[in-house]
Fold each of these.
Amino acid sequence: MSKIALVTGAGSGIGRACALGLLKEGWTVALVGRRLDALQATAALAEQAEAGSGARCLPISCDVGQEDQVAAAFETVRQTYGRLDLLFNNAGAGLASKTPDLVSGEEWRRVVDANLNGSFYCLSQAFRLMKAQTPQGGRIINNGSISAYAPRPGSIAYTATKHAVSGLTKTAALDGRPYDIAVGQIDIGNAASEMTARMVEGVPQADGSMRPEPRMDLQAVVDAFLTMARLPLSANMLFVNVMATKMPFVGRG
């Protein structure tokens, strides 16, 4: 019987790539994101890659920053499949580089809603499902970031939310123990996706300069993610860091 996964932000980038990776390994995947057309495009790519994969996709339009929409999405999964084995809390947002005084309250709330509130809403709903189902339990993987360890200049909203996601991961991992719910986090640095395209031109460095940064192939992220997803619930990779080898992270800023 196919295991059931829900991937947020599945319409592009890391979410799409990891959803396709799960489908290739035989999972059934609920594709969640704001744009239904992008989710349908992911399902079409799955069908092209492997006949029949598209039938194991369930596109669900949902803004993860809206609690009622998240609840409705998880209820759709419950009614359709009866259980959930894996949540990939991947959806997120950021801002153009700017100092704190230039970040508006509206911009701040938009990033918090997408990265932190959305992660909590989805995690909360996953707990509810995983505690009630038989057999009990499941796995939750939160998408953190290298920014969960150290910020870039001009990234206060993004970095603050990613630090908070680490707290979410640690606490949920503890709370999930009695129910066989394993919670971990994948922290990604410079994966080649739409979100990091600007790095080829140059991004702000800690010394005030602008320099291009190397990126890694998206498949490296998929491979690390699938390693986490394949584990039995008796084992957990609490934090996994996968990054471009030559990115300027380790060392003096």
Note: Helices lie at 13-24, 36-49, 67-81, 105-132, 156-176, 218-230.
Amino acid sequence: MLDHHDHRAVGPRLGLFHLQDEAPGMVFWHPRGLVLVRALEEAVRRRTLAEGYREVRTPQLLRKSLWEASGHWQHFRQHMFAVEEDGVCAALKPVSCPCHIQIYERVAPSYRDLPLRLCELGVCHRDEPGGTLHGLFRLRQFTQDDGHIFCAEEQIAAEIEVFCRGALAFYAALGFPEVGVALSTRPPQRAGDDATWDRAEAQLAAAVASAGMSPTLQPGEGAFYGPKLELSVPDRAGRRWQCGTIQLDLVLPERFDLHYIDATGRRRRPAMLHRALYGSLERFVALLLERDALPAWLAPVQVVVAPVGPDQREAAALTVAALVAAGLRAELDQRDETLARRVAEAHAGGVPCFAVLGARELASDALTLREGAGAQRVLAREQAIAHLLRCCAAPV
């Protein structure tokens, strides 16, 4: 029996998603759930575009030769779904970094174009063992807010510091002020020589310290191509789940022979930073669902409007139309149920605000707003819309 607050119980109860045996580790998002997903996508999209990233979209299925070139075939093969495509071995992408490298190569930037920041809300597939799957926390198919920064080595520290400070502010705005920070160093099985790893680990550690962070050390837990900083958030039970990360990679630029032309006309090798804020968008949804209630800006339905009786139904429908036109997610509840029952069902369904329209409100062109914490206020219709917009505004 699942705990009442477990996201695997909350999601189906609110009509957001379901999981089933025919698609292990993959999510069936329902209409209301997809509203939540889209709101989170837009939040991180606003953040990354404001920070100078340029959004791209890349293929799902790539041939083995590209994964061999990146080193994933040698070091990450057990987590990849391989298929035969036109008689050639290919794999669904577990990450987007080799794809973003292909774009970098064709852009052929000069020093004036750096840092080049690319981002993608990309679907990734990883062949996780069945016993490790855990609701939305660990999946085989998930959405990653993947981003890559290609920069000169002298730009590394500034880019890492900007990410670290921005990530902590982002999590705090979403209601997660306590973030665990860990620095993962070279794993036993890795690409690149020790001198390259020495340089990457020293530069990442120095930049993280400059950002004011004091991470715990996780020896041997880095990616096969570079050390990484991991940002973790606790679930309701106190277990920590990795979300954000930034990884300093000096290996893949060498494997793909990436270069840019510096101010003197010389070819130079860029560094590559792999970064994400949610990490797995689905995992972040799970963390949010296990809290007491979704914040109003993420609620699939933000306002339910209810006429008290038949005489207010037309006005209630017009009010819903006005709320939707203002940018709110509003629905009409004109069922022949008691007002108390409709209020209770709306709040049980995660709706943060209930707007009542009776004879008194209709006569004064007002709405009575009943909010989740029990607060009640009567406002003129335009004031009510402005109040609801403030309550439902995204914090990021």
Note: The domain at 303-391 is CATH 3.40.50.800 (Rossmann fold).
